[in-house]
Specification:
This is Hydroxypyruvate isomerase. The protein has eight helices and eight strands. The protein is an alpha/beta fold. The chain has an eight-stranded parallel sheet. The N and C termini lie close together (about 10 Å). Bound molecules: the ligand O=C(O)[C@H](O)C(=O)CO and magnesium ion. Magnesium ion binds near residues 137, 172, 198 and 234.
Length: about 250
């Protein structure tokens, strides 16, 4: 049976993160993940995780200055990128998070590639000290025009190049349906390097029971493939509340 993680960067954003964790638990999610939890004391997050028994699957490195979307592929910004990586890993270790998503940023070209590789080597080394995984995630060019990492092939090449056992692909079905499609075969082919899977309807990025992707098929197929980790519900609720749109979850709890 598929299991699900509530992405608290998009779900229950109307309340403090510890309360969002409790809401996810009450709704039947079996894990949580977040984007940028850094304004909340790690002890408060850890307490909510302990109270509910939910694991925190991951968090993101900070985006950087206004208008930026990550730092790790930006030439000349290694100090800031590595400070962001350290922050994510230390905070993640304090709350028992399994992974940190290292955000590349808006950049292109050889220097950006080399910078990203160098910062990812740093990140995988630091993360390994805490038993954490580093994730990289291709983003679609409608939501993130100019983002350095935009295809699964580019991510796979980087993962092969670095060859660290704790560097994995964040396969966001929403982004990759827009960029590449063929989700069923692509999930199968990339399974050996996938570290986390996220989903949302396409194109609206809402609940998964609408739009151009038939997620019951994707969820059942992943289950049949033996993928047992919780799948990340990273969507913007389209209705009055998160709870009002959770009909898609009820067959699985
Ligand atoms: O936008 C996404 O899909 C991400 O997963 C994210 O981490 C924030 O950019
Ligand atoms: Mg995502």
């Amino acid at each position: 049976m598929p299991r699900f993680s509530a992405n608290l960067g998009f779900l229950w954003t109307d309340r403090p993160l510890p309360d969002a964790i409790r809401a996810a638990h009450a709704a039947g999610f079996q894990a949580v993940e977040c984007h940028w939890p850094y304004d909340t004391p790690a002890a408060d997050v850890a307490a909510a995780l302990s109270d509910t028994g939910l694991p925190m699957l991951g968090l993101n490195t900070v985006r950087g200055n206004p208008g930026e979307n990550g730092l790790s592929a930006l030439p000349g910004r290694a100090d800031a990128a590595r400070a962001a990586i350290d922050q994510a890993i230390f905070y993640g270790a304090d709350i028992g998070a399994g992974a940190a998503h290292v955000m590349a940023g808006f950049a292109a070209g050889r220097a950006a590639h080399d910078t990203f590789i160098s910062n990812l080597r740093y990140a995988t080394d630091r993360a390994a000290e805490h038993g954490m995984t580093i994730l990289i995630e291709p983003l679609n060019p409608y939501d993130a025009p100019g983002y350095f990492l935009s295809t699964s092939a580019q991510a796979a090449d980087i993962i092969a190049d670095i060859a660290a056992p704790n560097l994995k692909l964040m396969f966001d079905c929403y982004h990759l349906q827009i960029v590449e499609g063929d989700l069923t075969r692509r999930l199968e082919a990339l399974m050996p390097i996938i570290g986390h899977i996220q989903f949302a309807s396409v194109p609206a990025r809402g609940e998964p029971d609408r739009g151009e992707v038939h997620y019951p098929h994707i969820f059942a197929h992943l289950d049949a493939l033996g993928y047992a980790a919780p799948l990340g519900a990273e969507y913007r609720p389209q209705g009055e509340s998160v709870e009002a749109g959770l009909g898609w979850l009820s067959p699985y709890i």
